Structures
1.
Amino acid sequence: MKTGYLIDMDGVIYRENRLISGAADFVHQLLATGTPFLFLTNNSAPTPEDLAVRLKHLGVPGLAAKHFYTSAMNTAEFLTENDPECTVFVIGEGGLLTALHERKIANDAIRPHYVVVGEGAATMERLAKAHECIERGARLLATNPDNWCPVSSEKTRPGAGATAAFLEASSGRRAYYLGKPNGYMFHRACKKLADLALGTPENIVMIGDTMETDIRGAVEAGLHSYLVLSGSTQLENIGDYVYQPTRILQSVADLVEEIKTGKACDRLNSPAFGINGLHSTKSGNRHQTDIFAFHKPRPRPAMTK
Ligand SMILES: [Mg+2]
């Protein structure tokens, strides 16, 4: 059986509103050869249908909702499996609301079991409401741990991790973070990939541009991992991490020939070295999962009784 691919999107297929060179050919070869693949994204804002349309407009046709698995879908599956009767108060966009709705998880602004935090849609009013829900006993769940997400090479936006961190600070409660690198995300993605392939692929490879999410998650899930340098990671920083990718590629363009012929490339180190590409120079922790602060619950104020 063929190799199956789990593929990150931002920094791998596109950056801002432009395709990464060779990405359209890469996806075309995956489709043409019947290679099993699934796009895996921590962005909980879009639905899979939104993502298929976006890629079509960027010049990658032929994709359908079944080719995408988002952290919002992962969150809805997690709740369905672990607490099927639960209710939720949500700070998030259409992709998260739709995923929860499809799983028949009810919205509850009075006494929810969970506050679910995704990308976007945070207003002070919603945050205050979520804070009240947590004080009344709701547990805090975030779709993904990203504090910030790249918008362009010079610009970022706040991510779900930052919103969850706000509520962690105000409530003294610690959030549980789904999405990459959480093992549940990889476990469910592998299952979905096997369903698409009508059987578990012999090898599963995660392709991504971010060490803390894509590569760490793949290593912990026992998968192969290919790091591409077309996104947020610079070659000279890879040695800082205890977990390492199986291969380092300049971009997914390096895989086109390999997928076409079905023969594994032996360029383990690829032509990636010495590239001066589009790289983020943003400092600061990008992901909540690598932060060990905020562990202590906030003491209750004396005046509550
Ligand atoms: Mg990425």
2.
Amino acid sequence: MLAALARATGGRLRSSAAALGTRTFHLTGSTAAAEAAEAQCAATQADADFDLTEDQRQFKQVAATFAREELAPFSAEWDAKHHFPVETIKRAADLGFGGLYVGEDMGGAGLTRLDAAIVFESLSWGCVPTAAFLSIHNMVASVVDRYGTARQRSMYLPALTSAEHLASYCLTEPGSGSDAVALKMTAKREAGGGGYVLNGAKAFISGGGVSDVYLVMARTGQAGPKGISAFLVEKGTPGLSFGKPELKLGWNAQPTTAVVFDDVRVGDDSRVGQEGEGFKIAMQALDGGRINIGACSIGGAQFCLDSAREYTRSRQAFGSPVSHFQATQFRIADMATTVQASRLMVRHAAAALDARSPTATIECAMAKRFATDSCYNVTNEALQLLGGYGYLQEYPIERYMRDLRVHSILEGTNEVMRIIINRELDRLDPK
Ligand SMILES: Cc1cc2nc3c(=O)[nH]c(=O)nc-3n(C[C@H](O)[C@H](O)[C@H](O)COP(=O)(O)OP(=O)(O)OC[C@H]3O[C@@H](n4cnc5c(N)ncnc54)[C@H](O)[C@@H]3O)c2cc1C
């Protein structure tokens, strides 16, 4: 993995650094990308206390370089044009980011959840929606790796880890989001033969219409979680269609659509896991997804913190830089503390998931709840520190704020996180 990262970094990233010179990087309007990079490096010093291994420091460095050179310079344009940067995602996969915790036998990087959280945090510093889509793609790849048959693994994983094919996760339906167990989509056994017929619709699917592979939860049996199974459905299967891209507040650099199933026929070998295991698979995948979305919030908040510090040093008011006012210093201190607290929670939850700790689910829910809400608040504080300029699209803060807002809603709303936390408290301590 490290060798692959090093090879890739030595080659392509150098050439993209040259391309960077031709783009304007709107950090403070007058600040160049090089200064932003410096700010990012300085900001990473706060990580020292989590005892990253040498390997983890290297993953982080590679991801940060990619974010700085291949994501940040273009992310404003992708947001404005609603462009899904598929080619950039493929280049991220060249570095191992398409299958972070997929086994190396299938072209994955074989990393831990903690390693992945570090990578997603660094990537999202450059572009939150692109990092977040990679996190969803990785979530599906990890389901195939963990629950797939040998045939499914060899059929899907090489193309997913290289991002030659992209993957989407389809749980939410128009009538069921938080109450996912109430999903209505059906997968009925073909009369007199093998295979299933899928009917129904999924809503809000990230990557919808562009992704090549869809992990779909559908009802094969009774009401409740044990009646749900998981299927892999390929784009182009007759009866599969997509709604128009939703117009959204943020996450504009990736499409969100409905996915419609009208008598979609799939073989038995499209089912992932046993019949009735789909809900368990979907929820286990979300534990990891929640860590990643928390990590994406941290990267976005770190960017806003770095930008606000930079801006307030150069902006003058009442005869001195805004950074000299104690109110500014206190606000920045609180923002930095919040980002660091979020980072520690997310990484601790990731380590618990790696260790298959009985506290992993509660830790993932707590970390997601805390990091997504708190880091969104950090982007709002950063916007305030830039005054009127923070509100302008010429500066990146309002975009990061728009992008982070949805993290409190998806992968389970933060109200649902509180439900999980309470349920797990009772399970872990039933007295
Ligand atoms: C941009 C975007 C991308 C998305 N990508 C995907 C994707 O790729 N795949 C996918 O499957 N889904 C995706 N989603 C869907 C997302 O996971 C759901 O929107 C989310 O789970 C909430 O469901 P809902 O929108 O139906 O809200 P509802 O479930 O209708 O909730 C409405 C409100 O009620 C609250 N609420 C509900 N139940 C309770 C309760 N018991 N106690 C207290 N409060 C409660 C909720 O927290 C929320 O505030 C995406 C959503 C967005 C916006």
